[in-house]
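Board notes, transcribed. Complex of a protein with zinc ion.
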Amino acid sequence: MKKTSGWPLPARMGLAAEFYQFCKLHELRFQRCTDCGTWRHLPRPICGSCGSFNYQWARSSGKGKVYSWITVAQPMLPAFSAAAPYTVPLVDMDEGVRMVALIEDTPPESMRIGMPVEVVFDDMTPEITVPRFRRAG
Ligand SMILES: [Zn+2]
């Protein structure tokens, strides 16, 4: 059984649904303003830099560096108990946005600020794929 079996699945509504459709294709894409070029994440309708509603879903390199993290020892939801302890980093992506996702195969004691990470994809169900991180290089 997969470690993530039975985990709650992300809501797929509006722009978040579009984000997860790309994840299903194993593509990490963020919105990028087509007027000023600013990347944005989490998905939202308006550019925080210039106020434009225009954007494209631009492909991310999938690479970034750890800004910070938490290690969960006692999950709030029983569904996560079997996975604990697990670590969830906040990552500065190469595109300049910050992203949160669980990191795989990285013991908490080996986490470092600035550690390079890359995105991998977890096909949680036939319909839902979510991004995860793993240590890069
Ligand atoms: Zn803009």
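Helices lie at 14-24. The radius of gyration is 15 Å.
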